[in-house]
Amino acid sequence: MTTAHPDAVWLSQVAGGLERYRAHPEWLASPTSSVTGGGAIQAAEDRFAAHVGVADAVLMPSATYAMSAVLRAVGVGPGDEVIVPELDWCANWAAVTAVGAQPAPTGVEPSTLTLAPEAVGRAITAKTKAVIATHIHGVPADVDGIVQQTGLPVIEDLTGAFGATLRGRPVGGLGHAAVLSLGPGKEIDCGEGAVVFTGESALWEQLIATTTHPVRQALSGLRSTAFGEFSVRVHPLAAVLALIGLDGWDATERRERSRAAVTAARHAGLHPLVGGPERQLATEWIPIRSGTGGGLADFATRRSGARLLTAGGDFAPVADIQLVNPVSRKERTCPG
């Protein structure tokens, strides 16, 4: 039996998606252009913002660029420190160093592996200018608790948690801003891309002024003063693919499937690292510690892609965290 090349599969999916796009005349109301920000770009941004319950969203070319843009927009620069979870994907630390700041690795909750609010309170110094709260493995971080610990900008890394809720509220709208990756293997995959969410008009204006074309700035009623900014805009086709990915997106259904996955893992004797009922995931890949139960062989598994950041700046893989999927049996192992 011949297996189709991954590119052939992906291109077939793209072709099918473009046909769906053409079937929606309301999406074609204006031309799609990274110059104006119209068409599929505006439509996707509006729909993303509505899903999270914030006023604005801005499409970006990648999540790492998006995170660095948000850090700059909230005033982080050389000599500053940004609190980051000690357990995270290294791209967030790269975004911090890209703006000249220093990551300050901070402790996580053992029951969720997400940033611990109490640890954030202890880690704040005179140099601290922002906090990145990652919803690692799709598990919502306690952003409410983190915000209460500090008056600093809190930026959520929403990757893996799009559709999840914390105390009944969608994650991505809990802090000052949030970044969602639209890269390969993500909930919504447009090849490469990202979206920034914010409910703060001043932050949205700063992002438009520093990351979009001057024509879009003018159409938004803004006059850019950031002529020295290195602006990289989203590709129009990525916006189309993001809009296609949002078509039929059902966060409620995804949370229900996630609850079923957590229940199945517990029934198998595993101990999911998902916290209490106030945190509702929207993924079927559930984090556990390896060797915590005998039912692991019954599920599809893959290693965590998270890394541990030490105070000295060293990265270490986390070998004892695995993701299990009680629903899918298509893959047994996957490199993080």
Which properties best describe this structure?
336 residues, alpha/beta, Aspartate Aminotransferase, domain 2, 2 domains, seven-stranded mixed sheet, three-stranded antiparallel sheet, 10 helices, disordered C terminus
- Percent of sequence in beta strands: 15-25%
CATH class of the largest domain: Alpha Beta
Order of helices and strands: HHEHEEHEHEHEEEEEHHHHEEEEEE
Q: What is the residue-mean pLDDT, rounded to a whole number?
A: 89
CATH superfamily of the largest domain: Type I PLP-dependent aspartate aminotransferase-like (Major domain)
How many independent structural domains?
A: 2
Shape: globular
CATH architecture of the largest domain: 3-Layer(aba) Sandwich
Find the structural class using helix and strand composition.
Answer: alpha/beta
The total count of helices amounts to: 10
Q: What share of residues is helical?
A: 25-40%
Radius of gyration: 20 Å
User: Low-confidence stretches at least 5 residues in length (pLDDT < 50)?
Assistant: 329-336
C-alpha end-to-end distance: 28 Å
Strand order of the largest sheet: 1-10-9-6-5-2-4
How many DSSP-defined strands? 16
What name does CATH use for the topology of the largest domain? Answer: Aspartate Aminotransferase, domain 2
Biggest beta sheet summary: 7 strands, mixed
